[in-house]
Amino acid sequence: MNVTMKQKEALLNSLKRNPELVTGMVDRKCESRLKLAKLWDEIAQGINSILDGPQKSGKEWAKTWKDMKSYILKKEAKRRSYVQGTGDGPPPKIAFSPFEEEMLQLLTPEAAGLENIPEGGIYTEENPISEDIIQVENIEAEQDM
Length: 145
Description:
Structural class: mainly alpha
InterPro entries: Myb_DNA-bind_5 (IPR028002)
Helix content: 55-70%
Domain Myb/SANT-like DNA-binding: 1-73
Number of strands: 0
Number of helices: 6
Organism: Lasius platythorax
Shape: globular
Low-confidence stretches: 111-136
Subunit structure: Self-associates forming complexes of several hundred monomers.
Mean pLDDT: 75
Strand content: under 5%
Protein name: Regulatory protein zeste
Order of helices and strands: HHHHHH
Distance between the termini: 72 Å
Largest sheet: none
């Protein structure tokens, strides 16, 4: 039985509340693996409470997420490749559903077309972190004199 749209939406909403599962920023130590498994089991309980659709374990829902994520990122890569190949020409006929757009935004804000995302290592007046780094560098230079 295929995963229903209600289950996909429940999975996406659960992942929005647990971004460490999306980014993979969980240490792979024993305690973290147990935490990760526990989180997926909790997500599975919530999704499995939706009666229509398949009932899966936490590990199976993690695999479902991995498959959905792979599909969306491949689709986005294909779209970007097409745009670059046409010299920033007209948008391709690769359409994303509203759900896929929401997923894409969760995975990669820059892929979802959001603007004004700061790039690492570039100094701008709007980037207070860069200003702090420059101030520290100036202080260190003064101390070396």
